[in-house]
Structures are given as C-alpha cells and as structure tokens.
Amino acid sequence: MKQTRKKKIVIITGASSGLGQEFAFQLDKIFHALDEIWLIARRKERLTELGRLLDLPAKPVVMDVTKEQDIQDFVEMLERENVSVRMLVNCAGYGLMGQFDALDIGEQLGMLEVNCKALTRLTYECIPYMCRNGRIIQLASSAAFVPQKNFAIYAATKSYVLSFSRALREELKEKSIWVTAVCPGPAETEFFDIAEKYGTTLAVKKLTIVSPKRVVKDALLDSYDKKALSVCSFPIKAFGILSKVIPHGCILHIMGRLK
C-alpha cells in the first residue's frame, strides 16, 4: 500500500503575541516548502488574525498548554494528521516581578506550570514526530544566567529551560535534531505589561531593550548554524560572560542597587 506523504509543519507556542508572533512572521518568509504553520495559544481571535497575515497555510490551535486534556487533544492531532515537524518553537511563558512573599502564589506557581512543565511536556510529545535535521528553539532568557532579586521564580524557571535545553541538545544529536536555547534581554513586547503589574520595574531594561524582530532573526540564524545558545545584543552577551566569572552574590548586589 502506498504510504501517504507526511505533512511538513512548524509548531509555535505562545504565537498570539510578542516573540511567538514574530517567529511566525519570519518563518513564514523562510520556509517555502512548508505545508502548515501550527499556531498555539489561548486567544483564538489573535491566532486567526495572525493566520490571515501569513502566506503559508496556518492552523490555529487554541489550547491552554497547562491543561492535560488540551495536551491530549494536541497529541491526537499530531498522530491523526500524519505530520513531520521541521521546527518546534516554545515561546509560551510569562514572568512576574516583585518580592516572592508579596506576589500571588497561584500566579507564581503558574510560571512553573507554563515556563517549565508545559515546555517540557510539549517538547516530549513533539520529538517522535520531528524529522532529521529538525530544530527545537526554546525561549529562555538572560535571567537564566544568574538568580535575580524580585524576579526569583521567573529567573529560576528560565535557568531550568537553559539547563534542560543544553542537556537535551546532547541527547538528540544522534537523531540529528538540534536544540537552541534563546536568552534575550528585555524585548519590546507585552511581556512587561504583565511582569510589572505589581509595581516593580526593571530599571536597566531601557538601556538594553531590543526589538522582537532582532531577537528572532538572531535566534533563527543561530538555530540554522546549530548553535546551543542564542544571545542578542552586546550588553546581554557581556552579561552572560560576566555571570560566569564574577560571583553571583556580587552580581546580585550590583543589580539590587540598579533597581
């Protein structure tokens, strides 16, 4: 019996805004032989509107990445549609700034659910469907480089993403699947609308903020080159280097004085 050709797809989580949306725009211009881009987020209207702006066929996948039933439905969709995943981009996530014991604990545990657990689960479910020479892009953050006062849980979740991505990269090399962790500094997205809602602000963001377009462009180039890490802008690259040579206690003290 003749085997049906597998549908070539790219999957992007957190696609309704920010970096996820920008990945959709730029990948739409890169992948000319792609069958579909799967756009994952909770906001159906935004996904539908984004799909209209893309040249490639877009499949809005409305789901909450923290809900088990939604994950099960997604896994069934992968199997039912006979797909070959060319790239998985995990952008879903959020952060909250403020003192740990002053923030809502439910929202803080939600960061663990979205930034760590959901990212891990979606990566696990997609790997069996990935093609040789496929790519996984995981959105970490420069916050992964060092613990951060008033950003404690978020920085910890992104340290997890960075560590997980680097280990997974070594495990998947023999399958010719390449993992890149993206560690940008502040970017011009809706991220800080949520992060600063309790009143705490990141003072240095105005000095280092970059456009989503630049972050994504660098990330895709680094992924193409099979790099383990993608860091955008000289100040953030310098911060990454300093975090390896200067004791974290000293960095925390300096950063505390800047806020």
Spell out the blueprint of helices and strands.
Blueprint: E1 7-13, H1 18-30, E2 36-41, H2 44-53, E3 58-62, H3 68-80, E4 83-90, H4 105-126, E5 130-139, H5 152-172, E6 177-182, H6 191-195, H7 205-208, H8 212-224, E7 229-230, H9 234-245, H10 248-258
Parallel strand pairs: 1-2, 1-4, 2-3, 4-5, 5-6, 6-7
Describe this structure in words.
By secondary structure, the protein is of the alpha/beta class. The chain has ten helices and seven strands. The protein has a seven-stranded parallel sheet, with helices on both faces. β1 (7-13), α1 and β2 (36-41) form a beta-alpha-beta unit. α1 (18-30) crosses α8 and α4 runs parallel beside α5. The model has no long low-confidence stretch (mean pLDDT 90).
| Low-confidence residue ranges | none
* Percentage of residues in DSSP E strands: 15-25%
Characterize the overall form: globular
- Gyration radius, rounded: 18 Å
Distance between the termini: 66 Å
**Strand arrangement across the biggest beta sheet:** 3-2-1-4-5-6-7
Largest sheet: 7 strands, parallel
Helix content: 40-55%
**Total DSSP E strands:** 7
Number of helices: 10
What string, H for helix and E for strand, traces the elements in order? EHEHEHEHEHEHHHEHH
What structural category characterises the helix and strand content?
A: alpha/beta
Q: What is the arithmetic mean of pLDDT? A: 90
Features of this protein?
259 residues; alpha/beta; seven-stranded parallel beta sheet; 10 helices
